[in-house]
Amino acid sequence: MPGQTKAETVEGVQTPMTEQEFKKRDANWVLVLFYIHVYVLGTYAIYVTFTSASWSTILFTGLISLLGVLGVTVGVHRLWAHRTFTATAPLRVFLMLCQTMAGQGTIYSRVQAHRFHHAKFLQDEDPYYSKESFVYAQLHGNLLNYSKQQEQMLLNVDMSDIASDRIVMFQKRYYVLLYIALNVLLPLNTAFQYFGESVAVSIFVSFWLRSLIVLNVGNLVNSAHFVWSIHKGFKPTDSNSIFFITKSFWPQYHYMLPHDYQSGEFGDYATGTGSTMIRVFAALDLAKELLTISSVAVRNGLTIAVDTKRPIVECIEEQRKLQQSAMPENHFLNREKFM
Ligand SMILES: [Zn+2]
């Protein structure tokens, strides 16, 4: 029959499906409602913060917002999705608790989505619409369920390393309980019980304002390349945005060579809070085997790629492995030398 190109199996029966149905993504209405609440109540919470909240509540909210962002950037992105370093069990527990406080779904689901995003970057199947626009990637892509096509493709994302991480699987199993305890009750109760805040101020500042901040910063992991990277045809000197944001090639570098712990999520390299925290964790012996690539290794890799006509990424990865074995254990303390 014309137009029927795909099929799915429902209880063993082949049901014909059009190409359009196969690629269609429905809205996740629970998430749409949640996002409406986050934006409306979170915006009002800014007013509440300036008029009614105590300094203790504001500082506490800032601290747990930062921990939530660390759980997303250092935890989900650099540790679990890209394996840019290895972490001891206590550090993995800490990052798992931080990521739960971010309230953005399980580590397992976020890692799977991010690996899929990298695999389909700048293609139609990317769940975060990397071909579209910043708003699509930051907002729209997060509010839609996967299409049948994407669900099938997700099965090809290698998650074996994540499935064997007992801490990640523990969080996946008890996520609802952990979410309620760490993302709802802990922040509300702390402001209410220890800082003498009213229930209303606790809810607005510690929950809705924090959700607004962490959700937006966390979603940037998949959309920041629109803001901070130099896209084709972009002329930095023609734009006033250069005064507010630093356009750089680092996002392009990350999508080409994601196994570098120093690649920041927001266009920076080596200097951001995430990179600094990983160095602190390494100095405390909690993080090990930090992966990075020196300029010399990149240059050698490029030269070999030109000489041999082999793929650029393959040649640079080869040089990175060579360089890694020659690096001293504590290279992260001497970053000028290896940047
Ligand atoms: Zn990434």
TrEMBL record:
<comment type="similarity">
    <text>Belongs to the fatty acid desaturase type 1 family.</text>
</comment>
<dbReference type="GO" id="GO:0004768">
    <property type="term" value="F:stearoyl-CoA 9-desaturase activity"/>
</dbReference>
<keyword id="KW-0443">Lipid metabolism</keyword>
<keyword id="KW-0276">Fatty acid metabolism</keyword>
<keyword id="KW-0444">Lipid biosynthesis</keyword>
<dbReference type="InterPro" id="IPR015876">
    <property type="entry name" value="Acyl-CoA_DS"/>
</dbReference>
<dbReference type="GO" id="GO:0006636">
    <property type="term" value="P:unsaturated fatty acid biosynthetic process"/>
</dbReference>
<keyword id="KW-1133">Transmembrane helix</keyword>
<keyword id="KW-0275">Fatty acid biosynthesis</keyword>
<dbReference type="GO" id="GO:0005506">
    <property type="term" value="F:iron ion binding"/>
</dbReference>
<feature type="transmembrane region" description="Helical">
    <location>
        <begin position="27"/>
        <end position="47"/>
    </location>
</feature>
<dbReference type="GO" id="GO:0005789">
    <property type="term" value="C:endoplasmic reticulum membrane"/>
</dbReference>
<keyword id="KW-0472">Membrane</keyword>
<protein>
    <submittedName>
        <fullName>GH18423</fullName>
    </submittedName>
</protein>
<keyword id="KW-0812">Transmembrane</keyword>
<feature type="transmembrane region" description="Helical">
    <location>
        <begin position="174"/>
        <end position="195"/>
    </location>
</feature>
<feature type="transmembrane region" description="Helical">
    <location>
        <begin position="53"/>
        <end position="76"/>
    </location>
</feature>
<keyword id="KW-0560">Oxidoreductase</keyword>
<feature type="transmembrane region" description="Helical">
    <location>
        <begin position="207"/>
        <end position="228"/>
    </location>
</feature>
